[in-house]
Amino acid sequence: MADLLVVDVLVVDLPMVDVTGSAGDDLATGLVTGQDGDVDFAYVSGDPALDLAGTVVSRRDLPLDGLGAPGDLERWVAECEGLPDRVTADHATFLSALSLREAVYRLALDRLLDRPFDPDSLRIVNGTAAGPVPTISLGDDGLRMSGSLGEVLSHIARGAVAVLSDPDAHLKECGRPTCTRVYLDRSRGARRTWCGMDECGNRVKAAAYRARRRASTTANGHDPTA
């Protein structure tokens, strides 16, 4: 799946939500976001909570928010494996989801940087995790989950608690310089470098190949820009 695609863009203000860089710096309270329904989501982080945090990409440079409206959140939930295929997001629950997203991201950074967890983010994640959770049932097609969006957020928050409290979990930030996704590395030897090959790995390799070609051309006395 490609990186976040932005077709028609606008700038929106998200009160109560801070977007943070990898050093924990506040970057923006206004995000560039796609119009409702015109972005593609990437589910590459190994856990729904981390995938939710990854709906803002390029946090250090130009933060792009895939959740510009409640309808985007509804679609994100429907497309996330293991979550209900239909929920309804009102404005209040939408803002709660954005707050949970930023809290998860900040706590993941705290874990990556081996620093104490941010108290406000802990309060948001733990408070959300304490809420009612969806109903699960078993059928011929496997596990099925149903519930309200609020219950889904509680389920996601509980997943965040489990991942962030696991001392053996290998959390990493994507190796592509402009990507800020945090992912759970379950590969053998924890050798995974990218959040996903389609999203970032192939792009880095292609860029490195082009750089080598330019260097070779220059060394042979040709102007690569000519």
Topology at a glance:
Blueprint (H helix, E strand, L loop, with lengths): L8 E5 L5 E2 L5 E3 L1 E5 L13 H6 L2 E2 L6 E2 L4 H10 L11 H22 L6 H11 L5 E5 L2 E5 L2 H17 L5 E3 L8 E3 L12 H23 L7
Parallel strand pairs: 4-6
Antiparallel strand pairs: 1-4, 2-3, 5-6, 7-8, 9-10
How would you sum up this structure, described in words?
This protein has 226 residues and is α+β, with helices and mostly antiparallel strands. The protein has helices spanning 48-53, 70-79, 91-112, 119-129, 149-165, 197-219, and strands spanning 9-13, 19-20, 26-28, 30-34, 56-57, 64-65, 135-139, 142-146, 171-173, 182-184. It has a 4-stranded mixed beta sheet, with no helix packed on it. A hairpin with a 5-residue loop joins β2 and β3 (26-28). The longest helix has 23 residues, at 197-219. The radius of gyration is 19 Å and the shape is globular. The relative contact order is 0.14. The model is unreliable at 1-32 and 204-209 (pLDDT under 50).
Averaging pLDDT over every residue, what do you get?
79
Tell me the major beta sheet. 4 strands, mixed
Question: Which spans have pLDDT < 50 for at least 5 consecutive residues?
Answer: 1-32, 204-209
Element order: H for helix, E for strand:
EEEEHEEHHHEEHEEH
Q: What is the C-alpha radius of gyration, as a whole number of Å?
A: 19 Å
Number of strands: 10
- Strands ordered across the widest β-sheet: 1-4-6-5
